[in-house]
glycogenin glucosyltransferase (Mugilogobius chulae), 324 residues
Amino acid sequence: MAADQAFVTLATNDSYARGAMVLGKSLRNHNTTKKLVVLIGPQVSEPCKGVLQRIYDEVRMVDVLDSGDTAHLAMMKRPDLGVTFTKLHCWTLTHFSKCVFMDADTLVLSNIDELFERKELSAAPDPGWPDCFNSGVFVFCPSMETYGKLLQYCTEHGSFDGGDQGILNGFFGDWATADISKHLPFVYNLSSIAIYTYLPAFKQYGGNAKVVHFLGKTKPWNYTFDPKAKRISGSMTEATSHPTFLMDWWTLYSSAVVPLMYEQYGDQPFHSGCVEGESPLQAQALPPLMSSQERKERWEQGQADYLGMDSFDNIQRKLDSFLK
């Protein structure tokens, strides 16, 4: 095991902790040789912390508000960037020479240890604005000097999007133009939303996806899952994930994470999200008919009915009928 290299993620609460559990399991299942580190916020409960300790090599509590360091001072000036400062803590992991940061709403589909051959700051383009990188997956080198400079940058410039992506794109501002080797292929951070904006490309390359990123408001853990019937339920009006990837997430969560949670929670009640006999996907019921104008507006607002009339298969059939 490469003792001085690690995959790093962040969980600020129990919901994101579940994401981190699945991410950690997916990295282990694909035989990573790297260490696994999770940074957790004070809101993460003891049972969830216990599960994370069984999956990760290192579980580190980070709380910017408590520290008397530079982060605390920066925080006083920019309270709006709370979670962002927490994420920047990954640069303080100086017992590692190189790390790959991954958001807790990502899922690994194959071994990605080759990312450690990349330099800081390597990342994939953001689907919304490809001259920016998406900060859900990036290669970095821990350094107290870089950490200090990042905090200073935060304080002086803030973030153009209110989060860490704005900060990091501002700080590593030459990413778009300086060195193409720092541009990770999109398959290392495949946004589940972007699939639908360019379907032919997904058809062509989607099978090579190595990491899927569940961007958007609705996260995998916001649904419920019937493990027996292999069915996902929840409000599909906001579904932004390809059903196959969502099923991959739930299959891994229900088989490998939920048993650990039951052990940690013991007699304490908790909601695993796995429910037998739930009603199937609402989209499988007959959807109310929508005018093409309403449907167009929904698409433009990013609210396509991905599991119903706008499902991948339906769109494919439509494309095939046009192409014929």
